[in-house]
From TrEMBL:
It comes from Rhizoclosmatium globosum. Keywords: Membrane, Transmembrane, Transmembrane helix. InterPro entries: DUF4436. This is DUF4436 domain-containing protein. The chain crosses the membrane at residues 12-33, 213-238, 272-295. Pfam families: DUF4436.
Length: 307
């Protein structure tokens, strides 16, 4: 008598399950390691606008961390921290910009009135005021309709003045940061050798994890639609009548497609490239399959007069 459950089949199932679990663990581990490396931010990748010596040159250092990207709103958020040079080792220097700060040990205090412009926002610091961290929102250029292969360009200027005559203030701009789900490449430029007009540039695009998941979900949508086509075709080829629960399942699948599409990480509003590649076509295919199944289910009732 043959085995009820052959040993070879059992071993194949065990091996297949083990390989699937190993693949899932390896994928999750790779994602976790990538996210951890990204979180290091400035330690891994940063760009400075110039090479200045904090002990001999007078300048304001602006550390601009790219903390968030709002693709739908076409904006990016920068967190700014400020540091002043020269005064670090000697407050009595004539060109020092900072006065002693016994109360705010974590922040510099400016000796002169100071105005700092980053992007479209200006921050004014009165004499003796601590240079507290600030945040600024800057516009980005790009077309999110090309998701997940969209690319964006962020550009902004940084400048400052100080003193009663509002003399130009040299700027050292430091760019770093990598928001979740994005790869960022920084660059900078200065208008002249005085470093009083500095421009920051960042190229932002989706990282490989976001693109891989988006493509995986697109393929899943197509496989579901093609499975419905095969099932409906088999009904006609083998002259079978669908049961109502099966028709109901395909109706539910039709209306679930937008939800499946929205599981893509950071998915844009409906109408993007992914909808032209998958959502619209899959919903049309599923709608056609449902109509054909309705016809196959209802036609015998019409011709025979039986329910």
């Amino acid at each position: 008598m043959p085995e009820v459950f052959p040993r070879k089949k059992f071993i194949a199932i065990i091996l297949g399950t083990a390989l699937a679990v190993a693949a899932i663990i390896a994928g999750l581990t790779a994602i976790a390691i990538t996210a951890k490396n990204k979180s290091k931010g400035r330690e891994d990748s940063y760009v400075t606008s110039a090479v200045l010596n904090p002990k001999t040159d007078t300048f304001l250092e602006i550390d601009a961390s790219l903390s968030a990207v709002d693709v739908n709103g076409a904006t990016a958020k920068l967190k700014l921290t400020f540091a002043l040079s020269v005064q670090v080792s000697n407050f009595s220097l004539p060109d020092s910009l900072v006065q002693p700060n016994p109360k705010q040990s974590l922040y510099y205090e400016t000796k002169y009135p100071m105005n700092v412009t980053v992007g479209g926002q200006t921050f004014s610091f009165a004499a003796g005021r601590a240079l507290l961290s600030q945040s600024v929102t800057v516009p980005i250029d790009g077309d999110f309709n090309m998701y997940p292969f969209d690319e964006f360009l962020l550009t902004f200027n940084a400048a400052g003045t100080y003193g009663a005559k509002q003399d130009p203030l040299p700027i050292l701009l430091v760019l770093f940061g990598s928001p979740n789900g994005f790869d960022v490449t920084f660059d900078s430029a200065v208008e002249d050798a005085t470093n009083t007009q500095v421009y920051g540039v960042a190229k932002v695009d989706r990282n490989i994890t976001v693109r891989a998941f988006a493509i995986l979900i697109i393929l899943t949508m197509w496989f579901l639609a093609l499975a419905a086509v095969i099932f409906t075709a088999c009904l006609y080829i083998f002259n079978q009548t669908p049961v109502p629960p099966t028709v109901g399942f395909h109706i539910a699948l039709l209306f679930a497609m937008p939800g499946v599409r929205n599981t893509m990480p950071q998915a844009p509003a409906i109408g993007a490239l992914i909808d032209q590649m998958a959502l619209v076509w899959c919903m049309c295919i599923l709608a056609g399959c449902v109509l054909l199944q309705y016809f196959k289910l209802g036609y015998p009732m019409v011709t025979t007069g039986k329910q």
